[in-house]
Amino acid sequence: MNVHKNLGSGFLESVYQEVLTKEFVKEEIPFEKEKKLNLFYEGEKLDKFFKADFLCYGKIIVEIKSVSFLNKNLEAQVINYLKATNKEVGLLINFGEKSLKWKRFIYTSHS
Length: 111
Description:
By secondary structure, this protein is of the alpha+beta class. It contains three helices and five strands. 31% of the residues lie in helices and 38% in strands.
């Protein structure tokens, strides 16, 4: 929230990613930037991988966007990342709107 409050909307995603990195360090939030995550299909590891904008606390996928609005395709992208990486929690954060918009996704194998 602090990043959007200070920068507002209109910057490229890469700017928000850099500033969010600084905020994570300042707030002592454990994270890995552009973390390479293995993908799985029916329990088998694939050659392809996904690079999360951030992986926080070793288990939360954080995807950031700078678009005019969050659409169902972006939401589906995060859900698919959760399914394919066997992670349970994902955050989709959009810095592109006048007000900060974010959605949290929970995925379990029973979802």
